[in-house]
Fold this sequence. Notes:
Blueprint: E1 10-16, H1 25-35, E2 39-44, E3 57-63, E4 69-73, E5 76-80, E6 86-91, E7 97-99, E8 103-105, H2 108-122, H3 126-129, E9 137-141, H4 142-147, H5 169-200
Amino acid sequence: xxxxxxxxxxxxxxxxxxxxxxxxxxxxxxxxxxxxxxxxxxxxxxxxxxxxxxxxxxxxxxxxxxxxxxxxxxxxxxxxxxxxxxxxxxxxxxxxxxxxxxxxxxxxxxxxxxxxxxxxxxxxxxxxxxxxxxxxxxxxxxxxxxxxxxxxxxxxxxxxxxxxxxxxxxxxxxxxxxxxxxxxxxxxxxxxxxxxxxxxxxxxxxx
Length: 207
């Protein structure tokens, strides 16, 4: 398919997630695409997007011209920066809204957010309009990808937020202490009530 693209051609492919890190032939093809500066973006999709499978898949965006250039599209001037040694990773698994009960679809806001992020990253003024965002997107360099043995798994690049680090341990333990104290009080009262009932029925329980 790459060979069919024009010099400014862009194509998107939906592939199983295994292609992001598979060894053997898959790795050789992936490495070749990266070294030839064709991989522009990797978007990890949510589950349940399709009727035929519930698995998460990946959208690969390949671009034959990642060099700096200026073009006019529908009367709008687009100034693209050089992105030959960069790959944009996006994790969209937290996006989407329910569709027909068991399926997922992107909302209009989701689509706008993703496309804006992608197009802003491409432009010459991207420093003002794009930023790496934990658990959503990251722009990785060729060296970053090479150090990770040409793996294109987004989670190896996009920052993960460890929410446990934001928990005040003492505050949490004090809260649990209060909750357990209340539970034990209720348990003790329940035990006394049961013993009283059995005693009244003439079947006193000796502990």
